[in-house]
Specification:
The structure holds two protein chains of two kinds. Chain A is globular. Chain A has strands spanning 4-7, 10-14, 19-25, 32-38, 44-51, 56-59, 62-67, 72-77, 86-94, 97-100, 104-109. In chain A, 0% of the residues lie in helices and 60% in strands. In chain B, β5 and β6 (54-57) form a beta hairpin. The chains are: A mainly beta, B mainly beta. The A-B interface holds A 4, 31-32, 34, 36, 41-46, 49, 89, 91, 93, 95-103 and B 6, 31, 33, 35, 40-45, 48, 50, 56, 88, 90, 92, 96-105, 107.
Chain lengths: 110, 111
């Protein structure tokens, strides 16, 4: 059964800093891995989807990488802004079964 | 506008009462999902459906029921058998094995 872990649980950085969020998963036989953003009391917003055949995806200041052999994905945020403050979740998708990490709560201080 | 809508945004349930949460999508997605989110935890799958008139139990289906009579709609009923229903409920949809898109959520509170 797939297990997804996100470290750290919380992260606080000054504005402008580059940062990396980590996601690890136990079963490498995934279809894809998806990163989401969640603001307090809101639904999830899809940020990036990496197919199992891909190594990375980029959208604006965000870059997500995938290393299936080591069971890891990272979300890189460049030049962080206060508006990036939110909880970031990753989810690993195996055969109609999507498993979520508990998330990393990011605070970017002005 | 294409997207997923959930209603109501807030819902209050009395002990012993069944309540139904609505989820509608106009993205023409075949698959729809219901998740439960508790504070500090990841999302847990309640039910999912890949086609009309068919659905499968997730990890925590006990005390919940669903129907999928139309492609666009996947309502979730929280029955009185669910002993700890207070949580944030999220609905999602996708093409089969594809990127999932989420609705805004319904916060259910037991009075």
């Amino acid at each position: 059964k797939q297990e997804v872990t996100q470290i750290p649980a919380a992260l606080s950085v000054p504005e402008g800093e580059n940062l990396v969020l980590n996601c690890s998963f136990t079963d490498s036989a995934i279809y894809n891995l998806q990163w989401f953003r969640q603001d307090p009391g809101k639904g999830l917003t899809s940020l990036l989807l990496i197919q199992s055949s891909q190594r990375e995806q980029t959208s604006g200041r965000l870059n997500a990488s995938l290393d299936k052999s080591s069971g890891r994905s990272t979300l890189y945020i460049a030049a962080s802004q206060p508006g990036d403050s939110a909880t970031y979740l990753c989810a690993a998708h195996n055969n109609n079964d999507m498993r979520f990490g508990a998330g990393t709560r990011l605070t970017v201080k002005p | 506008d294409g997207g997923i809508t959930q209603s109501p945004k807030y819902l209050f349930r009395k002990e012993g009462q069944n309540v139904t949460l609505s989820c509608e999508q106009n993205l023409n997605h075949d698959a729809m999902y219901w998740y439960r989110q508790d504070p500090g935890q990841g999302l847990r799958l309640i039910y999912y459906s890949q086609i009309v008139n068919d659905f499968q139990k997730g990890d925590i289906a006990e005390g919940y029921s669903v129907s999928r009579e139309k492609k666009e709609s996947f309502p979730l009923t929280v029955t009185s058998a669910q002993k700890n229903p207070t949580a944030f409920y999220l609905c999602a949809s996708s093409i089969l094995s594809g990127e999932q898109f989420f609705g805004p959520g319904t916060r259910l509170t037991v009075l």
